[in-house]
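ok so for the tutorial part 2 we go from a plain amino acid sequence to predicted structure tokens. step 1 is just haveing the sequence, like this:
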Amino acid sequence: MPEHVAVITGASHGLGKAMAIAMAGQGVAVAGLARSRDTLEAALGDYPVHLVAADVGDTAAVAAAFADIRDRLGAPTILVNSAAIYPRRDILDETPDSFMETIEVNLGGAFRCCHEVLPAMVENGAGRIVNVATFADIRPAALAASYSVSKGAMRILTKSLVADLGDRFPGIVINDWIPGALKTRMGLADGINPELAATWGVRLALMDDRALNGKTFEQNREYAAPKSFKQRLKARMLGQKQPLVRLDV
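step 2 — the prediction. this is what the tokens look like for a chain of 249 residues:
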């Protein structure tokens, strides 16, 4: 069995595709998961990636996909939750069904995949989960209510996982990673090249330092939450300043 088995969702396009290729290039056994087998074949057919077609918004499909991965590659040791949809709709044009469809994919999909990998990680006492998130909980995007809510809630999911598991299973290291605005179909024409961002994400996913558990990373560095003047002064007086972890060194 390989040392690591990584599952990357949303692997047929953009960041997910780039991460699957980069991760496989590190000698990791990689399963790339996306809705369509055809798009997976077109994106990753020439790379040593196990292709699994499944809609992360469908509980039964996710369970079947991970059963296949465990049978073919072994129990996943790394999970990157990258799958997402980004419907651009005015809130007045949203319906309960359209809103919840986005929630089911972006947030529900991440939880379904975590649910599939956690039993083996708990049994082995180790594992890595990287949730691709945004700062939408702080700065919701206009014309993207369902996306903003679902991706903002992803950060709460990460905090909840750490709160429940951190003390009991410190070897399961879970992070939010905010890669920034990417040059993808969901991003910006002048955004960050997904192949570059993928090098940061893969490095993060392969870091098993327990001290990283619960930390948020933005692009190629650890994110430092803003502190009040009093907090900064106290940290300086106590000599608590520590260098932030970088992903590009």
